[in-house]
Amino acid sequence: MQTVDNQDNLSLEKSYSQKDWQGGYESLNQEYDYWIDEIEGQIPLELQGTLFRNGPGLLDVNGQRLHHPFDGDGMISRITFTNGRAHFRNRFVETEGYLTEKKAGKILYRGVFGTQKPGGWLANIFDFKIKHIANTNVIYWGNKLLALWEAAEPYLLNPQTLETLGNEYFNGVLSTGEAFSAHPRIDPNAKLVNFAIKPGPTTTINIFELNTNGEIISKQNHSVPGFCFIHDFVITENYCIFFQNPVKFNPLPFALGIASAGQCIKVQKNQPTKIILIPRTNSQTAENEVKVLETKAGFIFHHVNAFEVGNEIVVDSICYNSLTEVEANSDYRESKFEANAPGQLWRFNLHLSENKVENQLIDNRACEFPVIHPNNVGKPYRYLYSAATHNPSGNAPLQAIWKVDITSDTREIWSAAPCGFVGEPIFIPRPNSEKEDEGWVITLVYDAEHHRTDVVILDAQNIQQGAIAKLHLKHHIPYGLHGSFTSETFI
How many domains does the chain fold into? Predict the structure, then answer.
């Protein structure tokens, strides 16, 4: 795999200050409910619906800092757009662990990414109970609002009040503690496809397909040799596709209480990435069997999309040269971006008849959280949007929204630098639109200068013209993870 020298960044002026970036990693303890009154520009009248966001709302428990933000309790933010106005509400997902620690006023659970109970290894040895934090994604599907975390079952929420109603088991198809991942893909043919990983020396991959009533209509189980660390996947008409990152897991330090589960995962840099193609239940492929291809691909968290062209499948992904490991005594707020490998846009051509993979770097710019038009999921597409760095090379916090035209090989960028830091963009098609990029791109931007978050609306056909509306919240939202949009409105 080709790599990019991070020394390139030294010749460019730094686009941010570490102190500004750190401000987005403060807890938000208060829950709000208000109409957003401070707005620059105008909210398009055609923009009707609800944006849901999820992410760690707490980065500490009563002043005891978490070792990693991914260990923080999930907090749902809801922005409802109606008749040119917008309403904000946020609320914590009241998981068992969140309520227990809130009552106790201290850390009581180990976290996946390094948070340990106070008291050293003696307090953590042989404690395998990890807190369900429901902090990774939130979707509205089949009249159900679900907070997702990939290691356990979803939490069901009331979309009107964001009240936590309990766990969702889909009429008993899921069992207690069974995982339902945080990265579903919505097939344009009105199905939601999701997966779950049960890791071990042999890993089980479960695949679920749900209808528009929110019912699981099919469930597949497949065994894969080796340990799997898989956060995302892609779908085509006939396949679910997983990239099995080259990692190994040594559970002994975790069992002995001296490291978290995440710290026991180590990248095997000289080993290939395995690409697992599992036929979907409606697959019309001639050979209805699992295929495994191998390639040199670094480490992948997120994919853009995949589509079939004859006997070939194209997969576009955000690929890192290596995984940045979480050290036991490190402070994530002091991350040295320039020293870490950037995520970059790559294309993988899977030649099924030859069991061969070809890789191509599409662009040097560091980027993450890619999104496309929902009608093109699993199909050929032209445009993608992602969070990206301000500078075209090197690594840094995400401060810009980037549009890539795959067909014409052109780029557009809107940047919030130097004091703005962006989250995952969401693409919302304009009602009755005919063009693939006709719609809006919405993202949350942490404004370090005012220590608040802005809801920024961009014209997807011309993002570099700047925000058509910028909604100033009364507070900040800690850096989040994933979210979704529905045309339904909830106030």
Answer: 1
